[in-house]
Structures are given as C-alpha cells and as structure tokens.
Amino acid sequence: MNTELYDDETFTPEEKEIPSRKAFGKLMPLLKDHVGGLVLCLIMLIGATALSLYWPILMKRAIDVNITGGDFDGLLITVLIIAGIQCLTIVFQFVQRIKLEIIGQNVMLKLKKRLFDHILKLNISYFDKNPVGRLMARVENDTEALRMLFTNTVVLVVGDILLVTGIYAVMFYYSWRLALVLFCIIPIFLTLTYIFQRKTTPHFLEVRKKMAEVTAKVTEFLHGMSIIQIFHRGEYARRKIDVANRLKFTEDRYVNIAVVLYFNTVFCFEYIMIALVLYLGVLWIQSGHITVGMISMFIILIWRSFEPIYRTSEQLANIQKAIAGAKRIFALLSQDDYMKDSEKPAEWNGLKDSIKFENVWFSYTGDDNWVLKDVSFEIKVGKRVALAGVTGGGKTTIISLLLRYYDPQKGRITLDGIDVRDIPRDVLRKRFALVLQDILLFPDTVKANIALDEPGVTDERVVQAAKIVEADHFIRRLPNGYDTEVSEKGANFSRGERQLLSFARALVTNPDILLLDEATSSVDPETERAIQESLRKLMKGRTSLIIAHRLSTILDVDEILVIRRGEIIERGTHTDLILQNGYYSKLFHLQFKNKNGVLKDAG
Ligand SMILES: Nc1ncnc2c1ncn2[C@@H]1O[C@H](COP(=O)(O)OP(=O)(O)O)[C@@H](O)[C@H]1O
Ligand SMILES: [Mg+2]
Question: Given the CA of residue 398, which atom of ligand 1 is nearest to it?
Fold first, then answer.
C-alpha cells in the first residue's frame, strides 16, 4: 500500500460539495478533441493484452506438440514466434504510452491554463481565505495527480481488467473444469481483500495525517532556523519533532504489519491455486482431460492473474489522490467569487474634482467586526492627504477599498461624485499609482519589473521614470544594468533600492493619483535622502493619499487624518494637530522623534 502523503488534504467547506462523478464529468469535455487518439490507445492496449495472453498458449503447444512429438524444428519455430510476439507487444505498448502521454500533456496544459485564467479573475478576498500554498497545490500537484491517473493508472486498470478477463477466458476454453475450480477461489480472496481494505484505510489516512504533521513541523522550524539559533531553541525544536515522529511511527508500524500480512496471504492464495492445478492436473491427465503443456500454461496464467493484485494497492492510492485532486480542481473552477464590474459602467477618465469617502463602514469578515467605522473624508484634486496612526488602525484597508479590492458594506466611495462601483476596475486602477508597504518584485529583469508589461511603456519611459525617482544610477551600476535579473523576492536588492524600484514602477504609467503605503523600516541616511527626494517628485502635481511614516512626508501635506481603531479621530494640518495637543500630538512626540524621522510602530 502506498503511504505517500497527499500534498494538501484539506478541503475548504465549499469544496466538499462536489461529488466524484461530477468532478470527473467536468474533465470529459477536455478530452473531446482527442477521441481518435484515445481509441487508438485502446486498440493498442487490447492488442498488447491479447498478445501477452498468446504466448502461454504457445508454451503449451511447445510442450504438447513439439517436445512430446520430438519435433525440434517445430520447437524452434514456436520459440521464434514467442519472441516475435514479445517484440510486437513491446511495440504496441510503446505506441500506446507515447500517444497517451502526449494527449495527457495537452489536456493538462489546457486544464492548467483554465485554472490560472480562473484564479486571475478571482476576488482578492478569495486569496485571504486560501493561502498561496494551497492554490499552488491546486495548479501543480492536483493537475499532476490527474495526469498520472490519466496516463498511468487508467491504462493499468483497464489493461488489468482486460488481462484477468482474458486469462479466465483462455482457461475456460482449454479446461472448464480446472478453470471453474480456480474461479471458485476468487470470491474468498476478494472478501479477504475487502475486509483488509475496510480495516486498514482509516489507519492509512492516520499515517498520512501524522506524516503531514511531521512535514509541517519540520518546515516551520526550518523557516525559523535563525530564530531557533539566536534563541538557542534547538532542544525545543528537536523535542517537538521527535514527538511528532514517534506518533507517526507507532501508527506506521500497525499499517506495515497489516500490509505484510495481507501480501503473504495473497502469496498463499497464489500457491494454493498452483498446487490445485498440479494436483488436479496430474489426476486428470490420466483421464485425458488435461495435458502436461496445459498444466504449465495454467501455472503461467495464474502467475499473471496475480500481477494486477500486487499493482492494485499502489494504483488505489493514485486513484484516491487523483479523485481528490479532480474534486479540488473543479471546486476551484466552480468558485465564482469573481470581481464583477457594474453592468452600466459610468464614464470616468481621470480625476477632475475630488475623491470622497462617505460614511464608509467595512468589515473583512462581513460581520460586525468593523475595521472601518463611519469613515468620511475628501481629497480635492491636486491635494495631498496623509493617514497616520498606529498599526491595525485600518489605513491600508482604506487604500484597498479605494482600489476596489473590496467593497464597503455601508456608505460609498466616489470619484468626482461617481460611485467607484460604477467605474470598471481596469479604468479605475489605471489612474492610480500604488506603492505598497510590502514591495513585491518578480523574477524577471529590472526593466520588466518597472514596466510590468504595461502596454505603451517603452524602454525610454522606464529609464525616464527611474531617473526621476533617483533609481537610475544604482540600476546602471548593476552587472547588466536594466537587464539584470531580479532574484527571488528581490533578494539581490537592498530594502531602499527595492523601494526606489517600486516608485519607478508607480511612476512609469504617469498616473494622476498616487496611493502610497510607505515602508516602515529605516534605511541608511544616503538611501533615505534618495527616497525623500524621489517621494517629493512622485507626489509633485499628483493627488496623493499617503500612509506616512516619515516625518518629512507628513509635515507638508494638506491634511492629516488620524486613524485609530477604524475611526478618524482627528484631522487637520500638522501644525493644527500639534496645537490641538491631542492623540496625534502624543503620537508625534512619542514616536516621530527617533533619528530617521520614521514612525517605527506604524503599519
Ligand atoms: N485581508 C484581511 N483579512 C482580514 N482582516 C484583515 C485583513 N487585512 C487587515 N485586516 C485587519 O484589519 C485591521 C486593519 O488593518 P490595516 O488596514 O492593515 O491597518 P493599518 O494599515 O493601519 O496597520 C487589522 O485589525 C487587521 O488585522
Ligand atoms: Mg498598513
């Protein structure tokens, strides 16, 4: 039995609802274009199976006719035919494998494309609920499991069914008595197998669960290795993993004993059958029902009829895996949590008057956990507004709502009086430049990371943008300049350099509104100066909404909104707020006073 771990055994609640039949039903249309190829494969499979049944018959002939009759020329011919048949079987199998593999690759390519297209259209909130790892498993492992099922398991199972049916047909044809005796043993054997399956399946699941736990723990500790070493937590990690391992092994031992027991039983059955053939065969040779050749043919056929059983256990695990994979894939495909645009989109192309939040209430969970409570403010075109306050206040959420990653439950957000819900998302987002707190760089060239495949962005435009935000000189110092590859998560750039790249990216389309969630971490003074300078240029002439952690950014904005627990509790210019001597003033004195002028604690 295969105890291999499923990569992701968890289903989200909505995924459970898809029955296997329906899941596979949805796979069928993908096969539509390949009917011809599939029929060819089936013919090849039947051919290969039939041929592989033919050589035991030839064996019988060799013994009964050639050897018994002393016809050694005839024996040579029979042996040559057997060899020829083997070669032909191999050719059939080869053609069938290759053909099916190609079809399988094609189908999975289509499926992966469909999955990815689908994921791209899903609402942002779907990704809050479903971690990236799980989606990765859907696109990669589940499709792979399906492909394996298709190119391997199905063939083996169909082939095995054909084989066993063929074997008994041949047996009955040559000696129905002997075949009948053997046939009667099958139900006993199947019953035993059934009982074994029933008893062990829960334990197999348990082993897999325990194995997943061990893997999860090891991954967790490996990710946190630096923390573990800094805090000398090696012993702690070792103990935790040791316990998980022990639990797994206890369960494993039971399963292993059961498996050994089962296969030995199967073994016994195989030899009981062979013994029966020998005994009855010899008995019946005298009465003329059976020949020596037939006995050897029966023995070969019995051996062959057990091959599928030794294989099946492994196939069962693959089938289960693929069924689970198919269900998850189609559950994902039937998710219609799409970002939908308004049926009657409004005309809006660029900000002319103002951005307005009107009594906006918002909760991520859709219940009474309000993250924003009755938030109202206005940004006149060309003005700069800053959001200030400690982590978790709801500042980033405000930006997410403005860009319609989420929609508020109450109240509305308008641009020039038009509800953002009536503006198509791509029109909306084109007008905004967004610089996020977490800067995400893709594994591609620096140039591509700035241009982001935006139509109409030329290389000159990229360089121009980089120059404005003071990124040009450090990019030029890179080994391949603008064509330097960015490594995973931008690890080959400093924090400050990544920030400058993200500014260039924001600027490259020359949008009219800037949304900026400043990075919190402090950088060296030289980079700090560069960032300040480019920020100033970035904001110039643009309506801006800034989550500011830098003193210098905040000082000269037109209005500061102080957010605390989802509410705007103070508003005004920096001077106003300091004079008010309220929350902002306290925050300012407590936290803005560190050397870099960066509010450390803000999110
Ligand atoms: N995707 C999300 N799903 C659920 N809760 C979230 C999500 N993003 C943020 N929150 C919660 O909303 C609150 C406000 O978060 P955020 O807007 O990021 O605050 P800030 O940017 O001011 O630090 C926090 O309590 C945070 O835990
Ligand atoms: Mg934030």
Answer: 17
Ligand 1, atom 5, residue with closest C-alpha: 364
Per-residue tokens: 363:
């909760």
Residues 422 and 444 grouped into a single domain: no
- Ligand 1: residues within 6 Å at CB? 128, 364, 371, 391-397, 603
Which residues are close to ligand 2, an ion, with C-beta < 5 A?
A: 396, 603
Residue 504's alpha-carbon distances to 35, 285, 468, 481, 509, in angstroms, are 51, 91, 8, 15, 9
Is the pLDDT score of 539 beyond 60?
Answer: yes
How many A from CA of 398 to the centre of ligand 1? 10
Q: What is the pLDDT of residue 1?
A: 34
| Statement to judge: residues 315 and 389 lie in one domain | no
| Average confidence score pLDDT of the chain | 85
Closest ligand 1 atom to Cα of 603: 23
Give the nearest ligand 1 atom to 389 CA: 22
- For 449-466, what is the mean pLDDT? 88
The number of the ligand nearest the C-alpha atom of 372 reads 1
According to DSSP, residue 1 is labeled -
Give tens-digit pLDDT for 145-183: 888 888 888 888 888 899 999 999 999 999 999 999 998
Same domain, 501 and 582: no
The CB-based long-range contact list for 370-374 (8 Å cut-off, 24+ gap) reads: 370/566, 371/397, 371/566, 372/397, 372/398, 372/401, 372/408, 372/566, 373/565, 373/566, 373/567, 374/411, 374/567
Q: How far, in Å, from the CA of 398 to the mean position of ligand 2?
A: 9
Specify the CATH number for the domain of residue 38.
Answer: 1.20.1560.10
How many structural domains does the chain have?
3
pLDDT in tens, 210-229: 888 888 888 888 878 878 88
Instruction: Ligand 1 pocket test: pick from 126, 360, 362, 364 the residue with the most ligand atoms within 8 Å of its Cβ.
Output: 364
Q: Which atom of ligand 1 is nearest to the CA of 602?
A: 23
Q: Which ligand is nearest to the CA of 129?
A: 1
| Residue 422: predicted pLDDT | 92
Nearest CA to ligand 1 atom 10: 364
Read off the CATH number of the domain in which 398 is found.
3.40.50.300
The answer to whether residues 362 and 223 belong to one domain is no
Range(s) of the domain holding residue 155: 13-333
Give the domain-ending residue among 296, 311, 333: 333
110, 183: one domain: yes
Q: How far is CA 28 from CA 22, 34, 35, in A?
A: 10, 10, 10
User: What pLDDT is stored for residue 300 in this prediction?
Assistant: 93
Q: Indicate if 299 and 372 belong to the same structural domain.
A: no
pLDDT at 169: 94
CA nearest to 66, candidates 359, 58, 156: 58
Q: Residue of the nearest CA to atom 8 in ligand 1? A: 397
- Which pLDDT tens digit goes with each residue over 259-300? 899 889 988 999 999 999 999 999 898 888 889 999 999 999
Contact 561, 388 (CB under 8 A): yes
354-378 mean pLDDT: 94
pLDDT at 17 over 70: no
The answer to whether residue 3 is domain-embedded is no
Q: Tell me, what's the pLDDT at 87?
A: 94
* Cα 7 versus chain centre, distance: 9
